[in-house]
TrEMBL record:
Pfam families: E1_dh. Keywords: Oxidoreductase, Pyruvate, Thiamine pyrophosphate. This is Pyruvate dehydrogenase (Acetyl-transferring) E1 component subunit alpha. Residues 8-17 have a biased composition (Gly residues). Residues 65-333 form the Dehydrogenase E1 component domain. It comes from the Bacteria. NCBIfam families: PDH_E1_alph_x. Residues 1-26 are annotated as: Disordered. The gene is pdhA_2. Its cofactor is thiamine diphosphate. SUPFAM superfamilies: Thiamin diphosphate-binding fold (THDP-binding).
């Protein structure tokens, strides 16, 4: 299995070669290491960053992608059954999320968007915590500092500013960890992302801007958002970029390692455009058939990231019955854990809304809580009275 800590025998963020030269030279070209048919393509600059990826680790990447697809399907089903208010599917983007997340070190810090549940899974977030906010049981799903991942950002692109600020803090601390901001193609049209890149370039902050170009910002196609490749936008800020096949887990991993290595050694920010496709709706409240051609969906289905890695494993003689059974069992177990955790999730107490609003006591908030407590007590509900007493 992969480990997030490169110093413990797993995926290393470092590698041979000059990462700065690589990012400068690959900006406009789509880098692919695995074809849709599962053929491994050699690349003179990217191959060296994958020399330590063993056959066992390829199987582990395959398991990760199958598992997060199953999480996605289970969460979608839970929403359709009324257990979740909303869910943003990641179907089709598994390679982008797993390939990048498994390149990170444990002390790197991730700033995800609402769709990056695969990244959160790799960082160690419990599966029931992935849906806590979508069920309406909490304002956020997990404690960011227990997994070095901020809670998912709903405001489009805002996390890029947070990542850049965190990266500037890394500089002040003299550390060599890296901040990574995940966002979609639509976010590149937002002011927050552009402002973040200005700051990152100005201060040469150790941050990676990881854009999953899934071709649709809700119903707006990427060709309308930008008449040039998104990776080329970064050059206007003085930020080197890479454009990789986002359905190719190895290409994504290599590109992320290059960017991380560059940031760790004082090279500043990098922009990665992972060209992928959102196979499902924007969220479960969306109907993509209203704006998307079925032929386009069919074309991208032929480039499926999981089928691609599965074909590579088969070509290498690694797709054994034992591996497939183990992966299926893991996916089943995680899905069952998600379903059980969702349905049995305890409802928050009414006064829990006041928790964690501020890190220190706040008289203004205390006054609101007191008023709300007395309001609840006016109904004479024993449960509410107990909740009020507990809060005091």
């Amino acid at each position: 299995m992969f480990t997030d800590d490169a110093g413990k025998g797993g995926i290393s963020a470092g590698g041979p070669g000059n990462s700065e030269d690589t990012t400068r030279r690959t900006g406009g070209d789509l880098v692919q290491l695995i074809t849709p048919e599962g053929e491994r393509i050699s690349h003179p600059e990217f191959d060296s960053w994958l020399q330590d990826v063993s056959d066992e680790q390829l199987g582990s990447l395959y398991e990760d992608m199958v598992v997060i697809r199953r999480i996605d399907a289970e969460a979608t089903a839970l929403q359709r059954q009324g257990e979740l208010a909303l869910w943003p599917p990641l179907l089709g983007q598994e390679a982008s999320q797993i390939g990048s997340a498994r390149a990170l070190r444990e002390d790197d810090f991730v700033f995800p968007s609402y769709r990056d549940n695969g990244v959160a899974y790799c960082r160690g977030v419990k599966v029931e915590d992935l849906v806590r906010a979508w069920r309406g049981n909490a304002s956020a799903g997990w404690d960011p500092f227990t997994v070095n991942a901020a809670t998912q950002q709903i405001i489009i692109g805002a996390q890029s500013l947070h990542a850049t600020g965190y990266a500037m803090g890394i500089q002040n601390d003299g550390a060599d960890c890296v901040a990574v901001a995940y966002f979609g193609d639509g976010a590149t049209s937002e002011g927050d992302v552009n402002e973040a890149m200005v700051f990152a370039a100005s201060f040469q902050a150790p941050v990676v801007f990881f854009c999953q170009n899934n071709h649709w910002a809700i119903s707006e196609p990427v060709r309308v958002q930008s008449h040039i490749q998104l990776a080329d936008r970064a050059s206007g800020f003085g930020i080197p970029s890479m454009r990789v096949d986002g359905n190719d887990v190895l290409a994504v991993m290599a590109a992320t390692r290059i960017a991380l290595d560059r940031a760790r050694h004082g090279g500043g920010p990098t922009f990665i455009e992972a060209v992928t496709y959102r196979m499902g709706p924007h969220t479960t409240a969306d109907d993509p058939t209203r704006y998307r051609d079925a032929n386009e969906l069919e074309d991208w289905a032929a480039k499926d990231p999981i089928s691609r890695l599965k074909s590579l494993l088969d070509r290498k003689g690694l797709l054994t019955a034992e591996l497939e059974a183990a992966v299926a069992a893991k996916a089943d177990a995680v899905a069952a854990e998600l379903r059980y955790g969702t349905i049995n999730m305890p409802e928050p107490a009414p006064l829990d809304i006041f928790k964690h609003v501020y890190s220190t006591p706040n008289s203004w908030l205390d006054r609101q809580q007191d008023h709300y407590s007395r309001y609840l007590a006016s109904f004479g509900d024993p449960a509410e009275a107990a909740s009020e007493e507990g809060a005091r």
